[in-house]
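Saturday, quiet lab. Running sequence design on the structure tokens for the scaffold JK sent over.
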């Protein structure tokens, strides 16, 4: 039986949690500029991710690593000016949060202040827990990202499906539970087996996208 979707005038972190609790589907798409965001917003999508994949799609780089914080702010501010309803989540780019929680907080604050975005997304689990916690202390909503994490492409060596083996799958589940406990409002799972994604979605109360 399908569940009727409540109409929200503006999507917020709170409404996303409510949608998950009510069994409503949540739609998220990526956009990098005003025109793309306008189309996505008018289509009724709930979340726009301003992804660091702009490095590939908009600038032609082979990986997401080259894009800078200021470039992410440029793309995100263009998206924010276009939307009326969507929640806008902005990727923290490579090098802006790893290994230093103070730097992570400063990066997140800069993005929120200068782009007008509504939340930030970070790639990783327990290894970045300190950075996530510090960002959350400033009242900045955080979306997690597990599975294939493109900022670690040189570690993985390929963009293939992750967590196919039991050990990596168990680590992913542990990290998902940790991210929920830390206070992340949602979680992206990229390129993981469907059965594992379903298992994670049932284990945690926050929305799982992907």
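Result came back. Writing it out in full:
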């Amino acid at each position: 039986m399908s569940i009727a979707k409540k109409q929200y005038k503006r999507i917020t972190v709170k409404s996303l949690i409510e949608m998950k609790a009510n069994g409503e589907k949540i739609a998220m798409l990526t956009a990098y500029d005003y025109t793309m965001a306008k189309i996505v917003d008018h289509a009724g999508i709930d979340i726009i991710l301003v992804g660091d994949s702009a490095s590939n799609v908009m600038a032609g780089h082979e990986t997401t690593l080259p894009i800078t914080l200021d470039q992410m702010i440029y793309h995100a501010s263009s998206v924010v000016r276009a939307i009326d309803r969507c929640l806008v989540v902005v990727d923290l780019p490579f090098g802006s949060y790893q290994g230093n929680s103070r730097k992570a907080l400063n990066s997140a604050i800069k993005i929120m202040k200068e782009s007008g975005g509504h939340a930030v997304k970070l790639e990783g689990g327990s290894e970045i827990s300190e950075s996530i916690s510090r960002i959350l202390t400033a009242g900045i909503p955080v979306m997690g990202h597990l599975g294939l994490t493109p900022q670690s492409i040189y570690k993985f060596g390929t963009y293939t499906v992750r967590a196919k083996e039991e050990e990596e799958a168990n680590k992913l589940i542990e990290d998902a539970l940790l991210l929920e406990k830390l206070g992340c409002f949602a979680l992206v799972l990229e390129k993981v087996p469907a059965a594992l994604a379903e298992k994670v979605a049932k284990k945690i109360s926050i929305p799982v996208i992907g």
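Notes for JK: Strands lie at 28-30, 47-50, 87-91, 119-121, 142-147, 186-190, 208-209. Residues 142 and 184 are 5 Å apart (CA to CA). Ask whether to fix the surface positions before the next round.
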